[in-house]
Amino acid sequence: MASGQQFLIAPEKPLVKRLGKKFFHKLPKRAGVYKLRDARDNIVYVGKAKNLRQRLRNYRVANPETMARRHLRMVQEVVRIELDFCPSEAAALKHEAKLIRELKPKYNRAGVWQGQPQFLTWRFGGEKIELAIQEVPPIGWERYGPLGFVAPRLHASLLRLIWLVMNPEAGFGRLPHGWANGKFVDAPALNCRERAGEIRNILKDLFWGHPESFLVWVATAIRSDAPAFEQAAVMADVELIQEFIANRRDREQSTSQIALL
Predict the structure, then answer these.
(1) CB-CB contact of 35 with 43 (8 Å)
(2) Which of 8, 79, 102, 261 has the CA that lies 20 to 30 A from 227?
(3) 64 versus 28: which is more confidently predicted?
(4) For 20-43, how does the pLDDT look when each residue is reduced to its tens digit (9 = 90+)?
(5) What is the bridge-based pairing of β-strands 32-37 and 128-134?
(6) Residue 77 CA to chain centroid, in angstroms?
C-alpha cells in the first residue's frame, strides 16, 4: 500500500497499443459521455467528462499504483471507445446516468441500480464509536450521504479497516464473528479506547477533508507480514475506499461546475 515506489518496469499502455497515440491526441476538449467496448462489442463502462480529452488520457497508462485493480482489468479488455458529445457537463451527467441505468455496464458500480437513499452514520459514546446505515439519520448522529446501494459495502470496509487499525496484532482472521462476510448487528460498536478523537478526525478527513490521510492512517497500521489471503482481503477494502474517494471528487467537481452554469 506504499505510494511513490519506483517501477523497475514501466507500466503498460494497453489502450495506446490498441487505439494508437493519435487517438488520444485528437480527442476533443468537449463535454460528453464515453463508452468503453470490449472485443465482443459489449459496453463495459460508461463515464462522463467536462473535458473528454483530459479524462480519457487518464486511461493511457495502466499504473497499478494509481489505478484501482478493477480499472486495471477494465483497460485490458477495452478495444474501442465511443463518444457522445453534450452541450454541457450537466447534460453529460444526465446522459451518463441514463445510460448506466439502462445498460448496467460490467465495470460501473455507482448509479447502476436505483434504491432507497442510505446514509452512513456514526456517533461516539465514551470510548466507543457506533457505525450504521440509516435511511433517516437520528438526531445526535453524524452522517454522510445519501449513498444509495454502495452504503453497505462502504460501511463494512470502514468497520473492518478501523478495527484492524485498533487491533494490529490480531489480523483479519480474528475479526469479530461475521464481519469478514459483511454480517453486522444493527449498529456495530468499536472500542476506540483513548483514540476516539483520532478516529473522529480521520473520518472527517475521509468525508470532508483530505481523504488520502485515511489511507495513510490504515497503511501505517496494517501488518505487512500478514498471510497472503489476509493481505488480499485488506486490499479489497482499501480499493473500495480508493474508489469512493475518486467518486467523491468526481461528484464534488461536477457539483461545482454545474453551479457555475
Answers:
(1) yes
(2) 8
(3) 28
(4) 999 999 999 999 999 999 998 999
(5) unpaired
(6) 20
Specify the CATH class of 14-103 in words: alpha beta
Grid cell, residue 72, equals 486495471
The structural domains of the chain, with segments of one domain joined by +, span: 14-103, 119-259
Angle 133-136-140 from CA coordinates, rounded to 5°: 85
For 39-56, how does the pLDDT look when each residue is reduced to its tens digit (9 = 90+)? 989 999 999 988 999 889
Strand order in the sheet with 43-49: 43-49, 32-37, 80-85
CA 243 – CA 261 distance, rounded (Å): 27
Residue 79 has pLDDT above 90, yes or no: yes
Q: Give the amino acid at 111.
A: G
212-219 vs 196-208: helix crossing angle, rounded to 10: 140
Helix (H, G, I), strand (E, B) or coil at 227: coil
Q: What cell was used for 172?
A: 483479519
Using a cut of 0.85, tell me whether the model's pTM lies above it. no
Residue among 35, 123, 120 at smallest CA distance from 74: 35
196-204 CB contacts, 8 Å cutoff, 24+ apart: 196/124, 196/126, 196/127, 196/128, 196/129, 199/129, 199/162, 200/124, 200/129, 203/122, 203/142
Find out whether the peptide bond into 152 is cis, omega within 30 degrees of 0.
no
Of residues 148 and 45, the one with the higher pLDDT is 45
A 10 A CB-CB count for 98 gives 13
Please calculate the CA angle 160-165-167 and round it to the nearest 5 degrees: 90
For residue 6, pLDDT over 80 is answered with no
Cβ–Cβ under 8 Å, residues 170 and 176: no
